[in-house]
Specification:
Layout lengths: L2 E2 H7 L4 E3 L6 E2 L1 E2 L9 E5 L15 E4 L1 H6 L6 E5 L2 H13 L16 E2 L4 E2 L4 E2 L4 E2 L4 E2 L4 E2 L4 E2 L4 E2 L4 E2 L4 E2 L4 E2 L4 E2 L4 E4 L4 E3 L5 E3 L5 E4 L4 E2 L4 E3 L5 E4 L4 E2 L4 E2 L4 E2 L4 E2 L4 E2 L4 E2 L4 E2 L4 E2 L4 E2 L3 E4 L3 E2 L7 E4 L4 E2 H31 L1
Parallel strand pairs: 4-5, 5-6, 6-7, 8-11, 9-12, 10-13, 11-14, 12-15, 13-16, 14-17, 15-18, 16-19, 17-20, 18-23, 19-24, 20-25, 23-26, 24-27, 25-28, 26-29, 27-30, 28-31, 29-32, 30-33, 31-34, 32-35, 33-36, 34-37, 36-38
Antiparallel strand pairs: 1-3, 2-7, 21-22, 38-39
């Protein structure tokens, strides 16, 4: 199937700076290295451009500057304000992964569905999936193979629940949510009380998890239900693989939680916070809007302001680097002192 470039420009008019003077058609979206004559390619650096006139795609989506530099070539060029954003939105529209499992019936014969469960339009249920009592699933949502949706859970419209996902009882998912394979939403939090013999007793967690619109959760990540009330993941939050968000946390809009990050209970993570890989945050801590946590940051104290933070306890990044350099200088001085002492002993 081919697509018109002029239709693409109309569809994404907010991104397009300059529409090409002539129309062209493309059949696939490819990298510059793997392009074909029918390809659309995204180019953010001139070095990505093909070297010969014979090696040309159907369409190039690029910056205004690069578009001007290649204007003498007979190529259909679309200049956009943000190449990476254009790649995300255009590729989603024309060349996204098909999670519909369309080779099977709309509801697979092996699925186990409680008669009280209700579905919207165009819902698909995969093989061996279990749907519990009073579950509600919105329009155009796909539940793939081997999932468990426990009783009273609610899932909104246009969600993709991938294989081996478990959504706990009463949890609420809004719209356009993507859960990658192995995700667990609403497992019981890690809460125990110790008696006089130092034996531990489980505290039941009767709250839920609520995921707002456009949240994505990566492979084998888990978000614990609240002890009471809600664990909340706000609109637009993206969580990478193998992350843990504990009970009663609140993660605000557009935060990025990157691989192997652990957030302990009752933390408040601000808007647009970035937790880089293997960040650790102890319980009852607050991280300010627009903070960026790097270098396996260990958050043992509140992060009061935006900016880049690193270390344990966390320090502003410049101070963290200065301390690292100081430690290196101290190590060199220690080594020099050891050499001097060794020379003195040799002389004596």
């Amino acid at each position: 199937m081919t697509h018109s470039v002029h239709q693409l420009c109309d569809q994404f008019a907010d991104l397009v700076i300059s529409k090409p003077s002539f129309d062209a058609e493309f059949a696939s979206i490819d990298s510059p290295a793997k392009m074909q004559p029918e390809s659309l390619v995204f180019v953010s650096e001139l070095s990505q451009m093909f070297s010969s006139e014979e090696q040309q795609p159907a369409v190039v989506v690029t910056t205004e500057k690069i578009a001007a530099e290649i204007s003498n070539r007979n190529i259909c060029v679309v200049s956009v304000s943000n190449v990476r954003l254009a790649q995300a939105l255009i590729k989603q529209h024309y060349s996204d992964y098909d999670a519909s499992d369309s080779e099977w019936d709309t509801v697979h014969a092996s699925a186990v569905i409680h008669p009280s469960a209700t579905f919207g339009k165009n819902v698909r249920i995969g093989a061996n999936t279990v749907i519990g009592k009073n579950v509600q699933i919105g329009d155009n949502t796909m539940i793939r193979a081997n999932c468990v949706i426990e009783h009273d859970a609610k899932i909104g419209d246009n969600c993709i629940i991938n294989n081996l996902v478990n959504i706990g009882m009463g949890c609420k998912l809004h719209n356009r949510i993507i859960l990658r394979p192995g995700v667990v939403i609403g497992s019981e939090g890690f809460g125990f009380a110790q008696d006089e013999k130092r034996r531990y007793h489980r505290i039941p967690h009767s709250g839920i998890v609520e995921l707002h619109d456009d949240v994505q959760v990566g492979v084998n990540s888990n978000i614990d239900r609240a002890t009471y009330g809600k664990t909340v993941i706000s609109r637009g939050v993206k969580i990478d693989a193998q992350c843990h968000v504990a009970h009663n946390c609140f993660v605000d809009e557009d935060a990025l939680i990157i691989a192997q990050t652990g957030i302990s209970g009752s933390c408040h993570i601000g808007k647009r916070v970035i937790c880089s890989g293997q960040t650790g945050i102890i319980d009852h801590r607050t991280v300010a809007d627009d903070a960026i946590l790097v270098h396996r940051c260990g958050v043992t104290e509140d992060i009061p302001t935006a900016g880049m933070w690193a270390g344990t306890p966390p320090k502003p990044f410049k101070e963290y680097v200065r301390n690292l350099n100081l430690a290196k200088k101290v190590a060199k001085l220690e080594k020099k002192i050891e050499q001097l002492l060794a020379e003195r002993e040799t002389k004596t």
